[in-house]
Here is the input.
Amino acid sequence: MKKTVLIALISFFLGVFLAGYFFVYLPERNMPDSFLNEAPSSPSFLYASPVAQERPDLDFVTVADKVGPAVVRITAERVERRRVTSFFDDWGDDFWDRFFGIPRDRGREREFRSQVGGTVENAEKITIYTLQENEYKAEIVGTDPPTDVALLKIADKNLPFVELGDSGQVKVGEWVLAIGNPLGYEHTVSAGIVSAKGRQLFQSQEAPSYQDFIQTDAAINRGNSGGPLVNMKGEVIGITSNIASMTGGNIGIGFAIPSDLARKVVKQLQEKGRVVRGHLGTSSRDLTEEERKALKLKSRKGSFIVEVTPGTPADKAGIERYDVIVEFDGQPIENTHDLSFKVADTPPHQSHP
Here is the structure.
């Protein structure tokens, strides 16, 4: 009996000793209370890479208060002439000339007012309404349909404004706010993240020619167009422009014009009233894997020339069909889309080795 009690006591103290060793003396004693609070100093199977900086506070209220007063609502009015048809149109020109002395096809002018957040091309009258309930008549300084950007001017000073951020520094997964007037509901704020960068939409007659959209899942609906896409510093990193939807409503896929692109366009509109772009004079597309192998290239990066227009800068420079442009002005070319933007950013009549 005494032997049994002695063995039990030895086992008890041995267990206490081992427990103390594991929880006090082993290196893991310095582990934080929760691995979610702090990333390790070096990569592990739990972390893809060390956290570069602490996560900023997500203060949507402060950002909305800062940017909101500078967001405006725009109404654009335009006059269209339309011929009014009726039953009497079938009576012929002689009837109208004889009894009324007017031509049959006389048109009527009707005013169509569209409330938009950005589309002002061909507008006869533009009115801007601010959050402070002020109303201004605006004039068009210039428009650039290829990027869907316009510059307006109003006669007033000391107005609230926002800062343009660097869209090149935007990261996928970053929090953003979209502010605008969707479906006529003024100064609506929606939150989301940057879903992707460098997106291109399906080409159509209405679609911009130069597309480098920021994709976001922040709710964007009709009427948001022209409103700011804002980062958590309160900087505008995009101008909301389009949505992808089968129904015309928000399904979490919206697109914004990057601030870096808008900045370049606005500067030219301000200085010249229009945008002047470089022109190469080629038709090109991305390489296929079969073409890469046939041309014995290391990668599919570059732009594959399909056609060269005679007399254009490309023709004069000696570029030929089936050439692959892999570099422009000392910068590598990722794809055809990349080449298009780099050429457009180059002033006309500028030569490169």
Summary: Residues 21-54, 112-117 have pLDDT under 50 and may be disordered.
